[in-house]
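Example 520.
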Amino acid sequence: MRSPSLYSQDDPISAALKPPSSETESERAFRLEQEAEAKRVSEQIDEDLREERERLKKRKGDVKLLLLGQAESGKSTLQKQFQLMYKPHSIEQERSSWTSVIYFNVVHSLKHILNTLEAWDDSLDDEADTPDMNSVATSSRMKLNGNGISDQPSPSTSLMEQNGSLNGSPGGSLAHSEMTASTSNSGPSSGGPTQIANLRRRLSPLIATEAQLADRLSGGITVSGSGKGSVYVRSGWQARTIDKIRSKRPTAATEKKPRESESMDVPPDPLVQEIAQMLQACEEDIQELWSHPTVKGMLLKRRLKLDEWSEFFLKHISRVASPDYIPTTDDILHARIQTMGVAEHIFDVNIHGKLVTWHLYDVGGARGQRHTWVPYFDDANAIIFVAPVSAFDQYLEEDPRVNRIDDSLQLFTQVCSNALLKSVHLVLFLNKTDLLRAKLDKGLKVRKYITSFGERSNDYETVVQYFRAHFLQVHRRNNENRRVLYTHFTSVVDTKATQRIIGNVRDSIFRGYLQSAALV
Ligand SMILES: Nc1nc2c(ncn2[C@@H]2O[C@H](COP(=O)(O)OP(=O)(O)OP(=O)(O)O)[C@@H](O)[C@H]2O)c(=O)[nH]1
Ligand SMILES: [Mg+2]
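Predicted structure in complex with guanosine-5'-triphosphate:
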């Protein structure tokens, strides 16, 4: 057998690269010019890559800050607040790329509403066919929770058994009894099934764009077990979507560091333009569905559960569906896209007249993403652990038996007890306090989901202090080094309040940092 040779006449690559024998003088000159340009571009890419590696390297004196916490806790939203504070021009560069995320959030929410209505309709048909109404009502209602949020409380997990369970009765039946207690019918059958069928038909072309949008955002990457039809994105996705539109080969420089004038001259993405037109044409239908008495009734009775960002964008649909819609900063803060792996962001932070480079790591919080965190623990200076306290009535998408507060406490235990992190400055954000307040105002009872809450008063102050006490207890029990835990009650979509807190955190990290560096 002949061994292939680079110089072989038969080598397919050499043959393909060989100029045609009929090449004229001017064609040759053109070819050589093209080859020289290709070489220059390739060398520029190598140079950009080298610069990028150099830029990302943590130097002595830099601060390394990790944002940790479960999925949907608000880490990327907090990262956006850092960006707004320390690199506001980069938000401008990215602004247009958030349109596709927001359209995806809207389309996905509409699909969830229509699917839930359909499931409810089916369950009513089942009920009509079955003599044992009680048992069927229970099972059919559980089937309704298509967004991964189950109404069923989790059995106590190992962590909370160790640390004093929040959920006093394993497999407790309060939420279950809440589900079975109400048998009144607020399903679609009582509120104009023909109207809903018509809306479903008219909205179907818009809903059919969900997969394309997901593909555009994720770059075709799907994450197994992501449930709920979620889309995960890697660091630098904004620049990649822009590059895709330009149909240009992405370079390392555009992946990590969009050029200054980037967003201004981006040609419109045909897919996004098409969806914008559909949204405009469907705006009245979306309004009709959103204000439909059946939808309102099901939301009120919690037979339909919507994520906070769904409600936000549906409430603002007339603005989102308007021609030439450009996301506001508030829209960007409310947009939801899941982080895959670990995304690094670099900021120059002015601390009392001295510029310090901060490397901020925003991690993916879903259970399947947590193994990617550990390599970043080494030489970290500080952690902001983000725990959403509004999640007391929610269960993990990854494991619907686990209450989300319970999961946050387990994760916080792991962070506090990790040997690599034992000297790291620790900050706790008890986040989504605005949503907690709204849930309590609506009358949601904490004790129905967390039985150990007992007969305490269901007011905001009692509830947040109760959760805070549990996190403090975890910290106390895993605090060999007697480090301080700095706690803040936050709503990281609130820019003014969050930036004030970021200022406090920056000063406290810097004080600890100076002390540990023995500079004071
Ligand atoms: N109302 C309200 N919404 C919030 C708050 N914090 C985050 N959100 C919203 O919650 C959703 C999830 O927030 P993200 O920042 O994407 O969550 P994450 O922790 O980065 O999630 P992963 O990337 O999956 O780990 C987004 O739609 C945010 O706008 C808050 O304090 N209040
Ligand atoms: Mg994130």
